[in-house]
Amino acid sequence: MKMNKKGFAISTMLYGLIFVTLAVFYMIIAYISTRNDTNNNLVNEIRNQINSAV
């Protein structure tokens, strides 16, 4: 079975676009997760400092 060149190019571009979209989505989720952990650590450190000063 011979594949059409135009169909092969379109499907390659679609798979590439899906891959890039998933990669960007994963990076955004990882960044938000890391930022949330950092904020929680900072809040806990401030609470500990306030409690030890009292």
Q: What structural class do you assign from the helix and strand content?
A: mainly alpha
Strand content: under 5%
Q: What's the number of helices? A: 1
The gross shape turns out to be rod-shaped
Give the SSE string. Answer: H
Kindly describe this structure:
With 54 residues, the protein is mostly helical. The protein contains 1 helix and no strands. The longest helix has 49 residues, at 5-53. The mean pLDDT is 88.
Quick overview:
This protein has 54 residues and is mainly alpha-helical.
Describe this protein with a few key phrases:
54 residues; 0% strand; 1 helix; mainly alpha
Topology of this protein?
Elements: H1 5-53
